[in-house]
Amino acid sequence: MPAPNLPREHPDSAVQAQHLIINGRVQGVGFRPFVYRLAQRLGLRGWVRNVTGSVELFVQGAPAALMEFQRALIEEAPPLARPKVSSRTSVEPQALEAFEILPSHEDAPARIHVPPDYFACDDCLRELHDPDNRRYRYPFINCTQCGPRYTLIRKLPYDRRNTTMAEFAMCPECKQEYENPLDRRFHAEPVACPVCGPVLHFVSPAGADIKDNATALAQAVAALRTGKIIAVKGIGGYHLMCDARNDIAIARLRAKKSRPHKPLAVMFPVQGVDGLNAVRAVAELTPEHERWLRDPMRPIVLVRKKAHAPLSPRVAPSLKEIGVMLPYSPLHHLLLEDFGGPLVATSANISGEPVLTQNHEVIERLAHVTEAFLHHDRPIQRPADDPVFRVIAGHARPLRLGRGNAPLELALPFRLDQPLLAVGGHMKNTVTLAWDDRAVISPHIGDLDAPRSLTVFEQVIADLQALYSVRARAIVCDAHPVYVSSRWARRAGVPVIPVLHHYAHASALAGEHPDVKNWLVFTWDGVGYGGDGTLWGGETLLGSPGAWQRVGSLRPFHVPGGEKAGREPWRSALSLCWEAGIEWKQCPEDPMLAHHAWQRRLNCPQTTAAGRLFDAAAALTGLNQRSSYEGQGPMMLEAACADEKAEAIPLPMALNRQGIRETDWATLLPFLMNEKHSLAERAGGFHVSLAQAIVAQSNAAREEHGELTVGLSGGVFQNRVLTEHTQTLLRANGFDVRLTHEIPCNDAGISFGQIIETGMKPA
């Protein structure tokens, strides 16, 4: 690529010069002004500019100053930057008089890194609360170290004209900041102020229609204090908000949204030195919880609720944990501070769909739920739901990717011959675009049943390819023939590569741990299409990506009603009892029709799913017969476990006709139905028994195949009690145990696993 100034010999022979290309997260994070200030400090001359996805710079000066520049370039980079020097070349000095920031270069080969959305930084929050600052209480304050990115970028390079802020012309004061390399708002693309930037708009059926930041905010707070449900537009979409201490308001929200039991996230005001005092009032926090609640992505973190916490029990009925988060946008800070307490902040969507982003869509689709709206006029280019983390085995692990940590880029342990697009599964869908040695995982899209989910699915696929200037040459999909994502792949007009669901689960974990060569991975989840045409879900896979061998499983059973069993756990419970020849007298439903269908195998698919086993256990213990959300029974069963050690029920294991070691769950059934044992004893015993069964399968595999690293992957291992018991027992038996760290172990990790499985498969 030609430099903007042609090299000429410099009269000072002591001067040296270098040309550098910096990759990584270097756009939208204040990296160029940082380079400018660093060069000024060290008396260096040259230039820096954005290239599509990278930063290019030419720098010259005394050798000692150049050495210090190279050190500080990485070690003193802005907090949100993740620079990597991909190219450093010694070149001839030029006749330059200063160091400049040059205009962006859009025609270079792309090494693009799309930045996620960031929380409001401390500097901006200080200005937000300073009455003498011109941005005092301005809900859209930001700088190069904070504010929206992914959700407002229309195309790259990341310049204002390529964002949804293009329609807001900067006032003279904002423009002066934007153009001053020494200002922390230099090329902060969303920069704005009350004079020239976005404005809040409060609307209520009572007649209020207010377009004014202070008044609209005050009206929203007043509505929340009177128990109203408000739709509030944030960075990546809308939240439905109400007082988290108000039983009546939450009951009304649940009734209107048809969400009777699913837990609701709660946002807390920042209080105390570290901002977490309001959270501590209701929850028991470990240092790992505290670290992740304050992480720049500001995720929802699941924490243990204190007994008698000053919070409505309707936030998370029958569960011990609640999802909490701190405010991450200036608007959220103002709202929470003025309200003075915690607010329910659940995604504004139809259940399972992506979060809503457009003002008119929220009014059209959620008018029956909300009682007022707090809009703003900064457009959201694409949705990004809040990320969710849970501390399992001492580390916070993602359950959902979203605003603040996605698009998530991971390095591949190989190099692809052609760009691939992996379209994931059906539930908790994400997609992954991969090329060369890079994989980019999208934010959470949702369940693909609804038309809007499919629309967003297609938008995200188009956006990722456009933003990264990469066009997929083949599509990887789930082997299930009727998944929406699989059907879409077959219509896309490029070669399609199907991957078994559980192979993808195992490969997703393996992709995070490329140092492991010999795996034994337990892939336990709800159901997924298996290699024999049945529904797998309790599988033990031996080998490595591209070469998995199924060596273990749970005893199969036939579930009456097929997919209905996911919402009606009594069906799974009956199936287990019929398979084992045991009567379930407490069944709440008339089993006659289901039994006739089961005997004739009518709509009774065979499955080995551990998730259905958990459903059945929740039903047999009397906890849950019908679910209003996915995983309700298993979550309630986990919450019923006591902290003390439970007694395990031995589960027999034997080779089946295919030579696969099968763990038999039948001995658990009488124990689960025995009311002489407390609910906590039965719930705990169930979890420990399955953990022991995993150890038994692992020991048997090691005896036959030698030393193995054991992996736990699949949605069942979101269960903290099961996972921690299993890890402890496996380690006591001398196993190296691996879990996912950066991607969810549930179906949100399937798309990444599809890439790993495809890329490692022998040609």
Average pLDDT? 94
Radius of gyration: 28 Å
Count of DSSP-assigned helices: 21
Beta content: 15-25%
Low-confidence parts lasting 5 or more residues at pLDDT below 50? 1-12
Roughly what percent helix? 25-40%
How far apart, in Å, are the first and last alpha carbons? 36 Å
Number of strands: 32
Form type: globular
Structural class: alpha/beta
Largest sheet: 12 strands, mixed
Salient structural properties:
single chain, 763 residues, alpha/beta, twelve-stranded mixed beta sheet, seven-stranded mixed beta sheet, 21 helices
What are the SSEs and their pairings?
Blueprint: E1 16-25, H1 31-42, E2 45-51, E3 54-61, H2 63-75, E4 82-91, E5 99-101, H3 122-128, H4 172-179, E6 200-203, E7 209-211, H5 213-225, E8 230-233, E9 238-243, H6 247-257, E10 266-267, H7 277-280, E11 283-284, H8 287-293, E12 300-305, E13 321-325, H9 330-339, E14 343-347, H10 359-366, E15 372-376, E16 388-392, E17 395-400, E18 408-411, E19 420-422, E20 432-435, E21 438-441, H11 451-467, E22 474-478, H12 484-491, E23 496-499, H13 501-512, E24 519-529, E25 535-543, E26 549-554, E27 557-558, H14 569-580, H15 592-600, E28 606-607, H16 610-620, H17 632-639, E29 653-655, E30 661-663, H18 668-673, H19 679-705, E31 709-713, H20 720-732, E32 736-738, H21 750-760
Parallel strand pairs: 2-5, 8-15, 10-13, 12-16, 19-22, 22-23, 24-31, 26-30, 31-32
Antiparallel strand pairs: 1-3, 1-4, 2-3, 6-7, 6-15, 8-9, 9-14, 10-14, 11-12, 12-13, 16-17, 18-21, 19-20, 20-21, 24-25, 25-26, 27-28, 29-30
